[in-house]
Amino acid sequence: MKQFLWGSATASYQCEGAWREDDKLESMWDHYLHEFQLENGDVASDFYHRFDEDLKMAKEGGQNSFRFSLSWPRIIKNPQGEVNEKGIAFYRSVLKACHHYGLVPNVTIYHWDLPQYLEAQGGWQNEETCQAFLDYAKVCFDYFHDLVDIWVTFNEPRWFIFNGYFIGNYPPGCHDVDMTIKGAFHVMYASALAVKVFKEGKYPGKIGIVHSYTPVNGIDETVETRIAMRYADNYCNNWVLDTAALGEIPIDMLGKLSSEGHDLSYMTPDKIAVIKHHTVDFIGLNYYARALVKPYTTGETTLIVNNKGKEGKGTSKTIVKGWFEQVSDPNTKKTEWDTEIYPQGLYEGILNAWHKYHLPIYITENGIGVSEDVTVEQVQDPYRIEFMKEHIEAILKAKEEGADVRGYYAWSAFDLYSWKNGCEKRYGLVAIDFEDQLKRKPKASYYWYKDFISKH
Ligand code: NOJ
After folding, report:
1. Is the CB of 156 under 6 A from ligand 1?
2. Is 416 in the pocket of ligand 1 (CB under 6 A)?
3. Which CATH class is domain 5-213+266-286+340-455?
4. Separation of CA 366 and ligand 1 centre (Å)
5. Which of 312, 335, 336, 316 is nearest to 325 (CA)?
6. What pLDDT digit, counting tens, does each position of 377-391 carry?
7. Every domain of the chain and the residues it spans
8. Fewest CB atoms within 10 Å of the CB: 178, 331, 370, 448?
9. What is the pLDDT of the chain when averaged over all its residues?
10. Residues annotated catalytic, as ranges
């Protein structure tokens, strides 16, 4: 049996910096954050120049795997699809360093940094972006197949699609249900196209998708609540996982959308057939929290994400008109960003996903975001240790009960840029002082994780 993977995770835009070095193009995030003069990832953790030090630290922390993503605008030079050899050389160096340090690379092809020239042509609203993604994915397979065994098509389709097209707090900053549905469909179609080309090309290794997994609980056992739970599960999980793993877009969800008057005519039989026949080999689950739901009562669809931390505590809200409402459990702890701390949800969620899909599972992200003073000698983060311990125990319990879980990745390997929450929402096992030359210092949790891994 293969070794269990113990790792930590990052994403290109959040850690690389070097935003226009070596002919990298502008991504939609570069464009959007510069346009609105918001905190950005121009420098981020400067992984572009310090990856060797970071990977060495992961190895010295007892880890045997590293999850990261490739930046599309670093690899493809122009709309004609010309390959940027400097971008290729960078990622080959990263991959070789992973192997040198005994870290199995777990590589995501798309973690939200779409080239801006594609966004300018409609981004995920435009079917041509799916074809462009296919071409880009093929370049990745061709240039890196000798160094990668674990591939991921997309990171968290739900999160970037809902935030970008409905909530509007991510680029392209829209508020439109039909754009949300269309963007979601195109991403799932593009993912299946990449699986298709991967299988047809007989590349070595396995390919999966990473989902922002939100197991659903109901407030009671009534039939109304159970119906609301099904709507919530379709909304939170099934449209990604059923589509990628079973090749089926939940039919009751399509029925509901259609009865609400949404035009779904672009979901043509040829595209549905691609989705049906090209399912993933494994699923990656990012787990932060579950959703506790009740039946919909009243009001318009409202999605509010607290990107303000302490100041915005308690403002998060999810109401999907005619579907369900999310409620906050008064008995559980929440972070300053309103994320509930609920390890039990991970245990139940893994078992559900295992029974439903029967595919290998990786927990591709799990962690806690907090503000921390990193000027000290060593950050003491007992809350992170407790969080990780409880969640890893939940995973091991689900594994003992038969779920085929193959790895765990702490989010994040080191402090990085947390999108609209900026650099001050810290998740890292290693502290980075963004004010003082990006110095790296392992936190107490880094050593705890090392010790935990050595005992398991
Ligand atoms: C999910 C995303 O994949 C990652 O980019 C993000 O920073 C973390 N979760 C934390 O919110």
Report:
1. yes
2. no
3. alpha beta
4. 9
5. 316
6. 999 999 999 999 999
7. 5-213+266-286+340-455
8. 331
9. 97
10. 156, 365
